[in-house]
Amino acid sequence: MGADFADTSSRSSDDDDDDPEAALNPGGDEDGNVAPLFRLNRLPPGRQDANSALLPGEGSVMSVYMMMHRIRRLVMAAVDDTYTLDELRAPHMDLQVVRPLVDRLYNPEDPAIVYCLVANRVQFLRPRSSEAAHQGMNEARATLCELLATRILRRFYEDHPGRSGLLLLANILVSGFDPCDTAPESVRSRRPQWAIQERGGHERKLTAFELAIISESKLLIKSPACQLVVDAVYKGVVVYTPLSFVDFLPDHYKYHPVSLYEPRRAAILNHRRLIVPQLRNGIELMHFALLLILYMLTVAHYGFGSDMAGVRVYETIFNIFTAGWVLEQFAAVVEHGWEVHVQNLWSFLDVTFVAIYGAYGLVRAVELLFTDDDYYALPVLCTAAPVLLTRVAFTVMPDNIVFIALHAMMRDFTRLTFIAIWCFAGFVVGLLFLARTSGEGSLNAGVTWATITKWLLWIWFGLDGTGIERAADFHLILGPTLIITFAFLGNTLFLTILVAILTNTFSKIISNEAAEIQFRRAVLTFQGVKSDAIFSYPPPFNIAALMILLPLKFLVGPLAFHHINVAAIRAVNAPILLLIGLWERRRVWARRSKSSRLRSWRYFPGLSPHGDIQVVFASEPPPEVVDALEKMDALHEVNAANRMLTVQSPKDVRGAASAVRRRRTSNSSSIRRFEA
């Protein structure tokens, strides 16, 4: 895919550097988006004969399908052993493996290379029983794919500076690519044939950014080039239409490519600003705050013994709003998939609250249909208080390393707890059968699985020893044996393993703190960009939109439905859209005023206490100074010293060190002669 960007802005280059939200050219659509000017020279997708998979012709680049298999062959040939990231980045491996592959694969006309590399990383990390013996080698190959993607993305970043480079990087990371591009018909026929919503030719496409999140490519995500795009997308400087699998309320009449946003050219009520991650996070925080307030009012009135009529009013408002909030969360899971959703810090808290709210709704429905009591459903709802209040902390401080570590440790803790419960159930069943077969008559009549469970729990937490005292009642020998075995396994082995696993997870996260924070911010940014129109309606208006607009979609044409949907979104969100439009326009004006003052300050270094330093580095040194510096330190010798680091044998190391000492002595003599 070739990209020829043209900057036809009428303003000066200084204004361009100080205003990252400025447009590349005076044109733009009605939403204020200015798309890059580039041409696509990829192989025609209709060519699926045997010759279409050969080398691309002049003016075109290799198809995604061909590039994916080419990368796979090269990586498998380059790595045939287990390597860590540090070993792959060692000087000799970097010179012999990484750099040649980067030089071979890098093509400034093809932004799909990074996507193909990350796609291969996902495939190498996929566990397969047939390749269990080569799992370590596949992990090394996946690491190499991530390292190559990072290096190639950095080359794109270095070769394309400015806003045109930002657009190119955004196209590389958030533009969708079809993995079966120009694939043979035999491959296309094996694709899953589930129902796909029509998206104007953008069906079944994935982005490199999404694959990087799924494969946890933290080295790629924390790179400066990727962080530049993440920051631009998060702030709404770069806008695009995201690709999703299924939408609850699809409105794909318009497709907006990756482009820059110019607030001055956009409508004052720009409904597409509702999917900007920075603004979206603020809106979702207000929704959650309102949910928490309604929850507190409902539970507090019930707990203080108020009349049930007042409780039902608050409960009704809470249920209506919460139903819309749950719909929004469910749509978020469907939007980008469960694998991406669970990377969010507070995803497990949302799932827990939805489960509690579902249990409350089920009990409440039974009360309304079959009984007249109000004593069972609301106590179930009270158990959600720890979840909601904990989520406040996670939402307010999403970049805190402690909460990031808690999110990672919760997965290990849940997995190990499930294993413990499974083993715990085995002891309960064993003791229950032992009581039925060999216990005394009184024990046979009174013991139940609930009693045995209580005794074992008390032993596990060290609260009571009744189970140990009554162990002989199950069986004189086997009863105490099972109880003591359970006590040893639960209090010694399980707790030791749990502490060791959680400590190891926490130490890994702390050792790579910056990458973890940047990865979570990237996940938050990617999840914030939504394509489903249901997210443009705040709860509980999203329920009304789903009930009214979705049937209407089948009665009117795409253009009419688009106009109706946009009008409804602007009407519902008019105050918020007005504030967003005025704030963004004021922010651009304030930035330009500030940049003008900064430019005038730069032109007067004498007003700064560090002005002398700025004068020294403001221009290149004269030729005679450069010649004198070259006589002191020849740059080609520095490059030779860098190449020397790649030698491996001790003999070569000693010989190279001697050569460096000889050159150092010669340089010292030259410096003394120059000074004389």
From TrEMBL:
Pfam families: LHD_TRPY1 (PF23190), YVC1_C (PF23317)
Residue span, YVC1 N-terminal linker helical domain: 66-254
Biased composition (Low complexity): 1-11, 666-676
Residue ranges crossing the lipid bilayer per the database entry: 285-304, 316-333, 345-363, 375-396, 416-435, 442-461, 481-502, 541-561, 567-584
Region annotation (Disordered) ranges: 1-51, 656-676
Coiled coil spans: none
Location of the Calcium channel YVC1-like C-terminal transmembrane domain: 310-585
Listed name of the protein: Calcium channel YVC1
Organism name: Chaetomidium leptoderma
